[in-house]
Amino acid sequence: MKIHTVIKILLSMFIANMLLSACSFDSDPQSLITDKRRMEMERTNNTAMEEKIEDLLGSMTLEEKIGQMTQINNSQFAKEISTPASSPSAPPETLLEIDTAKLIYYLDSFHIGSFLNGIAVPAENWYKYSKQLQEIALRHDKHGIPIIYGVDHMHGANYLEGSTIFPHSFNIGATFDTQFSADEAYVLGLETADLGHHWIFAPVLDVGRNPYWPRFYETYSEDPYLAASMGAAYVKMLQEHPQTAPYKQAATAKHYIGYSDPDNGWDRTPATIDKQQLYEFHIPSFKAVVDAGIKSFMINGGEINSIPVHASYELLTYVLRDQLGFKGVVVTDWEDVIRLHTTHKVAKDMKEATFKAIMAGIDMSMTPYTTDFCGALKELVEEKVISMDRINLSVSRILRMKMELGLWEHPFPQDTRLDRIGRKESKAKARKAAEESLVLIKNEGILPLTAPKKIVVAGHNADSKRGLAGGWSLRWITYDDKLYPEDMPTVYTALQDAYPNAQVQLADQKTLKASAAGADAIIIAAGEEPYSETPGNFSNLELDDEQLELIKTAQETGKPVILLMIAGRPRTITDVLPDCDAFIWCGLPGFEGGTAIANVISGKVNPSGKMSFSYPAQPGHWFPYNHKNMELFFDFDKALSMTTIAPFGYGLSYTSYKYSDLTLSATSLDTEGSITASVTVTNTGNKAGREAVLWFISDEVGTFTRPVKALKHFEKLEIAPGEAKTFTFKIDAGEHLSYPNTKGEKILEPGDFTLRVGDQEVGFVLE
Known about the structure:
The chain is 33% helix and 19% strand. The chain has 23 helices and 30 strands. The protein has a six-stranded mixed β-sheet, sandwiched between helices. Helix 8 runs parallel beside helix 9. The protein is globular and about 75 Å long.
């Protein structure tokens, strides 16, 4: 086939795609803005920076520009070197070492402008590695453009030895306190900004609406408002960090969009999401971080409604750029341009895949092992299938992000503040986050466990460090506890520390009954092995038979049984839960998780976590709390108890709270108005506690079917025994009573609404 024929075919396909976008999203002419016009619109008020970008674009070759649009994994130029172990119980230490010849090949032949990832190595190694990498890159770039380095730090600096590792995000969501999300970003910046980790591939803004999805634990919540609040707090702290100067870091919104709700629950698989639900449930968390100033987006490697997101002009340009107003860098996920050809099969070859991704709105391709993208993109430009204006648009975004991070002024890392890594106060923040993320789901009076003489501890994660940490800890996935810090407590060792005057005995299935003699309680730490992404795919949420049998054996002893679930998603335990005296959802509480669990069990800490998702009762049926009325039209209360053992927002305490005196400043408001709600919360128990007060609104009638209720506000405060505190919520009609239609436009419909908080509810009218 002749080149001009190929060009005509590709251009006609692209024009058809854009017309389809305009029709299906009812877009206005803004969606067809030229690339040159977009460049003008995205210019900042920093004249010097914009002139520098313009000068560079005028002097760079096509190959150099494409290099800026390409990201290569460090495995292509660096190797892992093992050194002798520091002690008999420790594994050999692993270091990263650059193969300069391989690196120079990528720099000279392809002008690569970005690299990513690594493993947990000492800070000194990261410093030397990053410094050498940047030095070589600058020597081999005639324009003096620094490289930008990306790292998947998913719950603290998980790729840094000796760092502070926080709970995973769905634990952070369960705290219902955005301070903990900000704390994670603060500590991460403190520990990594000096090391050349410029580009942080976090936070995950997907909403966790399908517990089969193997990245469920990386989400903050099934609720869009909670996810938006936590994500915005993280982004603001990381990108506006008060202590990392002269270094700055860019956050990344992952994984735009719909990734977390695949039809079959597996990683990177198709999702069917109608436009109205996309706007109502999936977009708000991403919109929140755009408003917070986030500098980059990473794209969902799956597909929505049969269109791969990496090839969707509708989602990547019309919605993200024109509707949400994002002006930063869009980077692909792992190999996802290639997969348009090899897996999705919407492109006949790599060249067509590259065309579709770039014209949809991709700025940088995480290739990450090959340079095929470079060759394909060069051919497309030379054949005038992709314009130089389109290339300049992406390169300007990439250069702007690098300049905003100060990489020209401060390209090299420094090693003068490495004592900030793993600080006592940082670990205290992680431990506090873990403590407040634990959710007490059931307690028949056994907890707190005070002054026991003997405790038996058993279960899959009873003496496991990796179980507490989960995936994205030290390595992408690791099953070797020896890689973890020697002083990191497990549940078993933390309980030994918490009860120095008691016998704390570790048991298994064979020894459990004999060990139970004389025990005050049996603690079963059930759960999972670590997993990340596709290796976490499986087809049954039910806890495996071996673990269920262990729980039943513990119950047969007649001793009180305290069940802990340490896992990356809810594993169903409905058949054994009735005979457990207590149940704590622990999630993945991180390196401080063992201590946090022991502190809650012993009563040193009063639990205050609430479910950030709905815990399903059955492995084959689930739904989020903000479901539609027709999902439970047959006897709501009975159906809810059959399908959920702990709904969103549920969590017990060692004290009790009474909600009273819910009042409104008015019983009606107009579409431009607001009213203020207040409620009194009294600690009626004998222990101080932190209570998260959650405000829900139900829209009783809507043009589109409405969720039974939706979280609109939350606040968490300490309340002393006998103390009463008043919580308020200002309800703004436009913000809290509207919802989107299929175009993303706000609908604000007069009618009846119900406000719910605790066990209180009151109705009001929008006129």
